[in-house]
Write a structure and sequence with these properties.
578 residues, mainly alpha, two-stranded antiparallel ribbon, 19 helices
């Protein structure tokens, strides 16, 4: 099977240099290829490849499309780095103080993602001109592009809520300047994303030879996620509060998480969760990876098609990862969430009342596959035992000594799967949709619909896999004194409890995958959870001394000042008196 390598140089024949407005720094789509070139599938394929390419080339270490930089707003992670001044604009997001519409990181992600959407629209305009008799893959390739456009809009909508939707490919220069970011209600905005995906779902195949292309299963997973966001209605323009939870949208989630869709694509849970976070080729694109950003090494270029967007995360280990910047550090709050009681279950309501102590506490094995902690091996390599030194905390302990394991690679693989350039890079794929998330989305919809036994059954499927995920840590109990205990839920649960169980399981399974903050906002839980988190952290970590989450403001980023200024009155600032 082939990878569709998405680090492809943009072909000069495929693009023009026209630009429009501040958020569209790419070309207008029309006229990029001649009529004769449109008849040549090779030219058309190059346009499509350039649309894929933008989703790696447009991001960087400070604006990663994985969104790790922005997940520091959640209770899962600290910003990290050397101090609060190191990436100070992200510190402001972390504590929800001093965030300005003029901050570079507020505008940068907006610009990068709209560049990606503009590139996709350029390719759509070209493919739409094709004659199916000449280009037999027309509808399938259009489906891929609609999928990519939906992905760009999805990332933007989760961050900014009120965004302009570029759903035409024939805008004139003047029309671009007249697009409003409040043309559609919140509900209607999600529907625009869903509309693109429904077209894609109709034509995408069950499997793809080129692994970077989305399959029908990938589109189904994406549709389920879009419907799940849409279900939690936030359509009061003066509030970000949840006004209702729509049952029809939840039923749509069930339709698009139907196991039969995924069985046709060969998707299921890996035997061990850690298999999803290994760089070796034998593990990449495994049965749980429904759609992933494809990275590679040794492809003929100096650095290959490496992922540089997580380059700030590796710790600074003397003589090994010198230059590691030590950002995105797991919080103590997250570590505590993995504690289990004598029943082998997490503490749903009071899990933060006591910090995890490996000498006395039992824990879910996923803790040791997600968080590197003092006195345990870094990346499962027993030659690198973590401690409370500056090797493991550039801030001297300000952000603690924990390290993320899901983005990092064993130092023993330096020079092969871990490459030093300006920063550290890896060839490890980034999974965008994985099957565990599909099961949890289905469980959430079932729980909200009151079908609690079915929801708990799916949660238990995830927990059974978690309990057996010990291939890398099997010696930890005997060598390091940790105690694994992860059991399934038994008995009957009311709807409220079942929803709590699913929410907790999402946190444990998807921790440090940049879902947490967006989940809290989607559920309407951000204010309560983060206020409690800040109150607890103020006694442990002085960076949170003045942290405060303001409801109906901090759920979303403000619309960047540069974009509002350039929009000639067509943009409305998000609520919250930015």
């Amino acid at each position: 099977m082939k990878k569709l390598l998405i680090y492809i140089a943009v072909l000069a024949t495929a693009l023009t240099s026209a630009s429009c407005n501040k958020f569209l720094t790419e070309q207008l789509p029309q006229g990029t290829l001649s009529d004769e070139q449109v008849k040549d599938p090779a030219y058309v394929d190059n346009m499509i490849i350039s649309a894929y390419a933008i989703f790696t080339t447009a991001e960087d270490i400070n604006s990663s499309f994985s969104m790790w930089n922005y997940d520091v707003r959640s209770d899962d992670a600290y910003k990290g780095g050397s101090s609060t001044n190191d990436g100070d604009v992200f510190h402001q997001l972390e504590v929800e103080k001093g965030v300005l519409t003029t901050n570079w990181n507020i505008n940068d992600m907006w610009v990068r993602l709209y560049r990606a959407i503009a590139r996709v629209n350029t390719a759509i305009a070209v493919v739409e001109k094709c004659d199916e008799s000449v280009y037999a893959l027309k509808n399938e390739r259009l489906s891929e592009l609609f999928f990519l456009r939906a992905y760009g809009h999805f990332l933007l909508k989760r961050m900014y809520k009120n965004i302009p939707f570029l759903i035409r490919t024939d805008y004139t220069y003047e029309e671009y300047g007249e697009i409003s970011n409040t043309e559609f209600s919140n509900d209607e905005g999600w529907q625009k994303i869903i509309d693109d995906l429904k077209f894609a779902f109709k034509y995408l195949p069950d499997t793809q030879e080129d692994l970077g292309r989305p399959s029908k299963s990938a589109c189904a997973a994406f549709l389920a996620k879009a419907y799940l966001y849409k279900a939690y209605r936030q359509d009061n323009p003066q509030s970000h509060e949840i006004t209702s939870i729509d049952e029809k949208d939840l039923e749509a989630v069930l339709s698009y998480t139907d196991p039969e869709i995924y069985s046709k694509g060969g998707f299921d849970l890996e035997e061990d969760i850690h298999n999803n976070f290994r760089p070796e080729e034998m593990y990449e694109n495994g049965k749980e990876s429904i759609w992933a950003m494809q990275y590679s090494r040794n492809d003929g270029s100096t650095y290959g098609n490496l992922n540089w967007s997580t380059g700030l995360i590796p710790p600074n280990i003397d003589g090994v990862t010198d230059g590691g910047c030590d950002f995105y550090k797991p919080s103590q709050n997250l570590v505590n969430a993995y504690r289990t009681g004598v029943d082998g279950l997490p503490f749903l309501d009071s899990f933060n009342s006591k910090d995890y102590d490996k000498a006395s506490d039992t824990a879910d094995p996923r803790l040791f596959l997600t968080v590197g902690m003092p006195d345990l091996p870094y990346m499962f390599n027993h030659n690198f035992i973590m401690d409370r030194s500056n090797n493991w905390s550039r801030s001297g302990g300000l952000y603690g000594y924990n390290v993320s394991l899901k983005q990092n690679v064993d130092p023993a693989l330096s020079g092969s799967y871990l490459i030093k350039g300006s920063y550290w890079a890896t060839s490890m794929n980034r999974i965008v949709f994985r099957y565990a998330d599909v099961l949890l989305m289905r469980a959430e919809a079932l729980a909200q619909l009151g079908r609690t036994p079915e929801a708990i059954e799916l949660v238990n499927k995830i927990r059974t896999r978690a309990a057996g995920s010990t291939q890398m840590i099997s010696t930890y109990p005997s060598k390091y004194g940790v105690k694994f205990l992860c059991r399934n839920y038994n008995g009957s649960y009311d709807k409220e409890t079942a929803v709590k169980i699913v929410k907790m399981e999402r946190r444990l399974e998807l921790a440090m995958e940049s879902e947490r903050f967006f989940d809290l906002v989607r559920w309407g839980d951000a204010k309560a959870v983060l206020t409690k988190y800040f109150d607890e952290e103020k006694g442990k970590c002085n960076i949170y001394t003045e942290a405060e989450f303001t409801a109906n403001k901090n759920e979303y980023l403000p619309i960047p000042h540069e974009q509002v200024s350039a929009a000639n009155g067509h943009y409305t600032q998000n609520i919250g008196n930015w």
